[in-house]
Design goal:
The protein is 59% helix and 3% strand. By secondary structure, the protein is mainly α.
Length: 509
Amino acid sequence: MEFSSSRARLRQARLAGDRRELYPHSLQFYLEPPTESISLVEFESFAIDRLKLLKVVENLGVSYVKGSDAYKSKLEVELRKLKFPYKALAEDDYEARRKDHISHFILRLAYCQSEDLRRWFLQQEMDLLKYRFNELTGNLRQKFLEHVNLSFEAISEDMRNELANELFTSTPGFSMAKVKEQIFYKVGLADAVDLFRARRVFIKDGFAYVPLKDIDAIVLSNYRTKLSKALALTARSLPSIQSDERLQPLLNHLSHSYVGPDYSVQKNTGKISLDQVDALSVKSFPLCMRQLHKALRDNHHLRHGGRMQYGLFLKGIGLTLEQALEFWKKEFIRGKVDADKFDKGYAYSIRHSYGKEGKRTDYTPYSCMKIIMSNPPSQGDYHGCPFRHSDPELLKQKLQSYKIPPSGITQILELVKGMHYQLACQKYFELTHYVDDIGFSLNHPNQYFAESQRLLNGGRELKKEISNPGNSQQKNNSQESMNSNSTPTSSKATADAELEGLDEYFSED
């Protein structure tokens, strides 16, 4: 027994040594891809958790000053919750380091597929690395720099005191007292060219003496170069990955992925009447749906992209099948479509979207990411995301017509310029509901509606309306699968694939 026990301890010690050797640091540049085998379930769950994390990084980066105490504390909470390394905790966080390593490479595969996806992924990964690097202690920071072959050496206290006057005059924003308490690194001039050009660093004998507050800029520049190149190389290898029938649907789903509640399951059926839709479109619809509603009322028609996007949204907020048929028919026959043509050409598609025809699939309302990333509108279309697909000047005019204050419009346009389309919509919510911070990440049009109603009703659920024969009842929300708190599953990927078949039923204009 003793022999067996000692052998087991030896095996455990060897395993621990192997683990430490595999992930010697909690932080890395992700230069070597993982080589182990993992299940598809683990593959998907790792990817979803990292996507949630990067979404939080994006939201916090806009809502808070990067590096502020509030920013750091909220990001640490998220890292803890999702079980990623949040501090260099020595050897006991092997599973977190493994998850960090594998999940990065999975999302690299998913987000290398277009320039927009690569740019977004690169920025969030850089912000995450910057936070984690700045959380390292001095000793661990030095070990990390050696690990990634950035041999920057912290100068001794004696040398810092000797060069204090030169460091004070060459480092903007530093008092003499701050110079004497700051850590400086001796960096090769080639790695500090940007700081040298900006005259923000002391140079001596071919070396730059860089303060700790600026060393992360050099590390991030190096990381950006490596990750940009890696994403380009990964994109070239996509054809071989696309031939794998197991991985490709998952990767496509991730790159358009929403990770919030599922709005295909309606919880508030019968709580909204058709008479309320016009008023609700003004106070509780996101801009994309408000735009579609107005276009439908003005033109008495929407092309198939608009009908799909708006029809599934209305289904998600609680419109019953009977209400939907009545709603669309009343509007269409006010235009160029007579009742007979509607019944033959359009009614089937509405029943199909409710799972009453064809494959009997209960189709899911579109998430923000699906609207932003797929099927951009063309001439005569009104679907899509106004923050993503509208000309900035036209968007500005639309916001002005909705009485958004000039300062708010400026904030929204800045977010649009930075390609933070969902955050621009979030700002639109705050401005139209007169709140400073909505307290959640906005990822779905139906989430926008639900949160708006909750806010306007003082946190209460919608009360059920007494329905009339002419006003069938409505339903509320759950959600699909793309950006924030739940998990897209393989079945939802299947549902997305099946949704492609719905296009043909909506294609008649």
